[in-house]
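sry for the spam today, last one i promise. struct tokens for design, 338 residues
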């Protein structure tokens, strides 16, 4: 204290530093607790997933069906959440994801082309067709939105994406109808894990590689999300980073469509919920988004097995209904806050 009863500058600085240290420690402890709760909840869901089903559980059923199915659910949820997060960051719009910009529909179109032209092609080959058309569909979306005036409302970009998705889906549906593959195409676009067994889900491990690549380049993706001028000024090759990021989005969506089908609204809901809490730093939020996407799809898959037991509902329907309701509530909440 000074003679006038005021704190000295050194004391004020020391107090501020102590307060900052306390806040940092508190934030770190909250983060640890949150991770502990999330991992515990996911572990409980995994245990429940391994035990829920129509058949009597034994070692053969466990390792041939339940374990592969659970792994497929976790990887698919993480993949679609990753795709939505990257798409929103690079396009700089919170209302886009692979199933609303034509990526998922383009992957289904590629799968249809492979089925018509090369019906004996193995699954990996069909996935290559799906990846190629998903890349083309995503590139077409980017080309279209470049013509949208910058001052347009934020909802214009997702509306353009939905219209493009509708056009691609309509053309694909017409071709499938002409060749009597309409029911098959419907299965491709509706997420369903009932057919996942050992030997039929391993392509989803590509998602793990994509997660590692995304985490390695996370800082570059975050800078690219600031816009072309800012990214270029910071020494980032904006065009190359965009190509890599949207390539990851296309591959993750195509792999999911080929192996399990579409999971609508997942890439919208989970990234938006996490971004509200953690911001747009990709390196920080990526693990949480992937964990949230995996847990969300796993919970929906358990519901799909329970609601009409001993039969199953397609998990894509459960994900779509719950995801649409959650996203609508987010929109209404943001409007109320304004």
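last one done:
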């Amino acid at each position: 204290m000074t003679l006038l009863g005021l704190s000295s500058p050194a004391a004020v600085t020391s107090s501020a530093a102590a307060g900052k240290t306390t806040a940092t420690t508190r934030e770190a402890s909250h983060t640890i607790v949150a991770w502990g709760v999330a991992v515990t909840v996911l572990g409980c869901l995994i245990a429940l997933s391994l035990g829920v089903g129509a058949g009597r559980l034994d070692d053969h059923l466990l390792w041939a069906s339940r374990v592969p199915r659970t792994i497929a659910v976790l990887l698919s949820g993480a993949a679609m959440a990753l795709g939505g997060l990257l798409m929103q960051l690079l396009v700089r719009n919170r209302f886009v994801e692979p199933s609303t910009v034509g990526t998922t529909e383009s992957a289904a179109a590629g799968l249809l082309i492979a089925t018509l032209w090369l019906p004996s092609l193995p699954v990996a080959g069909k996935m290559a067709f799906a990846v190629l058309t998903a890349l083309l569909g995503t590139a077409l979306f980017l080309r279209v939105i470049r013509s949208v005036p910058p001052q347009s409302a934020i909802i214009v970009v997702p509306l353009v994406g939905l219209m493009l998705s509708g056009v691609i889906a309509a053309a694909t549906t017409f071709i499938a109808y002409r060749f009597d593959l309409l029911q098959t195409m419907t299965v491709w676009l509706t997420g369903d894990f009932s057919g996942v067994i050992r030997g039929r889900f391993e392509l989803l491990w590509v998602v793990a590689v994509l997660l590692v690549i995304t985490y390695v380049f996370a800082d570059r993706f975050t800078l690219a999300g600031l816009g072309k001028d800012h990214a270029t000024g910071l020494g980032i090759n904006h065009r190359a980073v965009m190509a890599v990021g949207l390539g990851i989005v296309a591959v993750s969506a195509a792999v999911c469509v080929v192996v399990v089908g579409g999971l609508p609204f997942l890439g919208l809901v989970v990234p938006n919920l996490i971004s509200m809490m953690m911001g747009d730093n990709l390196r920080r939020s990526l693990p949480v988004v992937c964990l949230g996407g995996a847990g969300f799809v796993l919970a929906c898959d358990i519901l799909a097995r329970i609601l009409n037991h001993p039969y199953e509902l397609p998990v894509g329907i459960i994900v779509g209904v719950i995801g649409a309701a959650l996203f609508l509530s987010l929109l209404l909440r943001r409007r109320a806050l304004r």
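The chain has a mean pLDDT of 84. ok im logging off now
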